[in-house]
Specification:
Elements (H helix, E strand, L loop, with lengths): L1 H15 L47 H4 L2 E3 L6 E3 H6 L15 H8 L2 E6 L17 H12 L5 E8 L2 E8 L10 H17 L3 E7 L8 H20 L3 E9 L1 H4 L8 E4 L10 H8 L10 H6 L5 E2 L2 H16 L7
Helix pairs in contact: 6-7
The structure holds zinc ion (ZN).
InterPro entries: AcCoA_carboxyl_beta, Acetyl_CoA_COase_Trfase_b_su, ClpP/crotonase-like_dom_sf, COA_CT_N
Subcellular location: Cytoplasm
Family: Belongs to the AccD/PCCB family.
Length: 330
């Protein structure tokens, strides 16, 4: 019996010289103590066993994106850990795509010191008792639950380096950053605070437009906010708009386009009506980048397209200049 068992092994050793073949006579032992042609001890299933000439996949330890909460880049589909994303100001480290920032994160990012928040006393009403696929109050409570915010615009005042500023930011996650009467109220309050303290106002816009659930009341906010900005202009109080992706509709048609300076983030989509609506109206096919920030910069709608990493410096430099304050960076 032992002679019969030993024979195939001897033959194999003679043929391959240095390669030890598995003991094929023992079916339970085929996966153990194998030495592969590359010298590795396999201890693996046949599926993972290395084959000469075929590149072996390295079994690396789990990477950070596999062990930490991560976000997928919507442009290059890379997984980025949330920690890395926050440290990189929500810019993809692989393709430089600017991912959306929530309004609260945006304001805490821009302000070195937050002295207070405005407009939290305003709450949305439902005067039209508007119902589309869901009643308006239900949509509101869902948005509040999703974002942890009470409305689509957040206003804070504080310090940007050595400058006092009032800053507001739209949260696109909250019903598409739509402008209803509370957004109008908060924006006007921000403008009045800026006017009263004679400090600049900075607005980060990200909106789908007026909030249709409030009908005419939402459209009225266009006039209200425009009037508040006009009061700033008369008083010589600077107002800077940063257009982030996307800004559309009634917000573009009012407060987002009335700044003293319009900055935009790279590749932000900015327009009044969407591409499809314009094409159906003018019966023409429009070239793809026509509502991108870079295209609008070439055509004079936007003053500068600024990478998010340079945004705070740029806003500060502009405000210091407009306020006649010595630039602490210079
Ligand atoms: Zn990316």
């Amino acid at each position: 019996m032992s002679q019969l068992v030993d024979k195939p092994l001897m033959m194999a050793n003679n043929m391959t010289d240095t390669i030890t073949k598995p003991d094929m006579t023992n079916p339970n032992n085929t996966e153990k103590n194998n030495v592969e042609p590359n010298g590795n001890t396999a201890g693996q299933s046949w599926f993972n066993r290395s084959v000469p000439g075929i590149k072996q996949q390295l079994t690396a330890p789990l990477t950070a994106v596999e062990t930490e909460p991560s976000t997928k880049c919507s442009n290059c589909h890379s997984m980025i850990t949330n920690t890395a994303l926050i440290f990189n100001c929500y810019v993809c480290p692989h393709c430089d795509h600017h991912l959306p920032m929530s309004a609260r994160e945006r304001l805490h990012w821009i302000l070195d010191q937050v002295d207070g928040e405005l407009g939290q006393e305003f709450t949305a009403k439902d005067p039209l008792r508007f119902v589309d696929s869901k009643p308006y109050p239900k949509r509101m409570s869902e948005a509040q639950e999703k974002t942890g915010e009470s409305e689509a615009l957040i206003v804070m005042y504080g310090k940007l380096r050595n400058l006092d500023v009032v800053a507001c930011a739209f949260d696109f996650r909250f019903m598409g950053g739509s402008m209803g009467s509370v957004v109008g109220d908060r924006f006007v309050q921000a403008a009045e605070k800026a006017l009263e303290d004679k400090v600049p106002l900075v607005c980060f816009a990200a909106s789908g437009g007026a909030r249709m659930q409030e009908g005419l009341l939402s459209l009225m906010q266009m006039a209200r906010t425009a009037a508040a900005i006009e009061r700033l202009r008369i008083a010589g109080v600077p107002y800077i708009v940063v257009l982030t992706n996307p800004v559309y509709g009634g917000v573009t048609a009012s407060l987002a386009m009335l700044g003293d300076i319009h900055l935009a983030e790279p590749k932000a989509m900015i327009g009044f009506a969407g591409k499809r609506v314009i094409e159906q109206t003018v019966r023409e096919t429009l070239e793809e980048p026509f509502q991108r920030a870079e295209f609008l910069l070439e055509h004079g709608v936007v003053d500068e397209v600024v990478h998010r990493h340079q945004l705070i410096d740029t806003i500060y430099r502009l405000l210091a200049k407009l306020c006649g304050v010595p630039n602490v960076n210079a």
